[in-house]
Design brief:
The protein is of the alpha+beta class and 381 residues long. The protein has 2 domains: 206 residues, no CATH class; 151 residues, 3-Layer(aba) Sandwich (D-Maltodextrin-Binding Protein, domain 2), CATH 3.40.190. The chain has 10 helices and 25 strands. Strands 1, 4, 9, 10, 14, 17, 18, 22 and 25 form a 9-stranded mixed β-sheet that branches. It has a two-stranded antiparallel ribbon with strand order 2-3. Strand 2 and strand 3 form a beta hairpin. The chain is globular and about 60 Å long. It starts with 39 loop residues before the first strand and ends with a strand.
């Protein structure tokens, strides 16, 4: 069991000790140093990899960092524990969740029980970063895995800043474009781009616009793919450079990532985390819900939690381990370290999740729009 070493440690021992500039060496991506094996190891979402790197740098117990979060992007294998646990990097929410299932000994069809891409990863992953809920739009209170929200994101349609596509669209327009029912917006030809398989953002977007991978593979959406082969190679999520030089392309983009990438210097200064600015020529469009007024995804440099296509982002843990001190202290409830961690900016405490562009919902609305640390949203994968 990967939690043996902390079995006698109380949840109180995992309170955050947070200070600006507490890390001497910049953490460009994975934990630094890579062989500093921390209590909790996580993989998965590109959307939340940067904020979890930030939390990994500022949340400590007894002067030691607690959270190791391994980036979605990169080609090198990762090694999450001191013994064994070297395996191919999971890219995206779905792959992060699958690696967690394999870590719990489940058979995910990649070489047998406990195996991720034919490597035994049993006991190697403690949590999965996920920007989507595995159960789609149907929340459940039962399941082997608990989706614990820690922030609010919004997904907007990104366009090329130098193109002629409108700066505001309706949800119906975006939906019709991705269902290949319209090839223009505002009289301008548009080419939709898909995101990489396993992306939580693509999972969220495709559910909202009403398309499935099966339909894409069957050729039901000829503006996206022919016989399952994309007309344009699938883009890594939140990488606006796919629009560079293509004034008619559009692609879904996380508003929180857009904010973080635009604030990379400030984030580096406060958390020692390098956020790669991949916005390229992308700018986010406003969106008008059916029968409503236009909402902008970012207002005054801050995410708008009332944007129509908003979503919670999660750390996923095994339901049976919610009471494990490291998981309970860092993820569970509004007073957990992930919910309350701050950095000091000029004498003012800044919430880490907000620093990285995410919104904070103080009050419970529904299981899919819950307050930070909520633990009653569950699923079996």
């Amino acid at each position: 069991m990967k939690v043996k070493s902390i079995g006698r440690v109380s949840a109180a021992a995992f309170a955050a000790v947070v200070a600006a500039g507490m890390v001497a060496t910049p953490a460009a991506a994975d934990p630094v140093p890579a062989n500093e094996y921390r209590v909790l190891a996580g993989t998965g979402s590109d959307t939340t990899q940067d904020v979890m790197n930030g939390l990994g740098n500022v949340v400590t117990s007894g002067g030691n960092k607690v959270i190791a979060s391994w980036d979605a992007r990169g080609t090198a294998n990762i090694k999450t524990k001191s013994t064994d646990c070297e395996f191919p990097r999971p890219n995206g929410s779905g792959n992060g969740r699958r690696s967690l299932l394999a870590s719990e000994g489940e058979d995910i069809g990649q070489g047998g029980p406990g195996r991720w891409q034919n490597v035994n990863v049993t006991g190697c992953v403690d949590f999965a970063r996920s920007s989507s809920y595995g159960g789609g739009s149907n929340p459940s209170t039962t399941g082997n895995y608990t989706y614990i929200p820690f922030g609010v994101d919004a997904v907007a349609l990104a366009r090329n800043t130098f193109g002629d596509l409108p700066s505001n669209v309706s949800f119906a327009q975006a939906q019709r474009v991705y269902r290949c029912l319209d090839r223009t917006i505002g009289g301008v030809t548009v080419q939709p781009v898909m995101l990489q398989a396993g992306s939580g953002t693509w999972e969220f977007w495709s559910q909202r616009v009403g398309i499935t991978e099966q339909e894409i593979n069957l050729g039901d959406y000829p503006c996206l793919a022919t016989g399952g082969t994309p007309l344009i190679p699938r883009a890594q999520e939140h990488d606006g450079t796919v629009l560079n030089g293509f004034p008619n392309r559009v692609v879904p983009f996380s508003a929180a990532q857009y904010v973080a990438q635009s604030n990379s210097a400030r984030i580096q200064n406060l958390t020692q985390v390098t956020v790669e600015d991949r916005r390229g020529e992308a700018s986010l469009t406003g969106m008008r819900p059916t029968g409503g007024t236009v909402q902008q995804p970012v207002v005054g440099g801050v995410l708008n939690i009332n944007f129509p296509l908003r979503r919670d982002v999660y750390n996923v843990v095994p339901t049976a381990k919610l009471s494990v001190p490291a998981i309970a202290g860092n993820f569970v409830g509004p007073n957990s370290t992930v919910c309350t961690a701050t950095v000091n900016e000029g004498g003012v405490p800044r919430n880490v999740a907000q620093l990285f562009g995410f919104g904070i919902r103080a009050n419970f609305v529904s299981p899919l729009e819950a307050n930070c640390g909520y633990t009653n949203l569950r699923f079996n994968s």
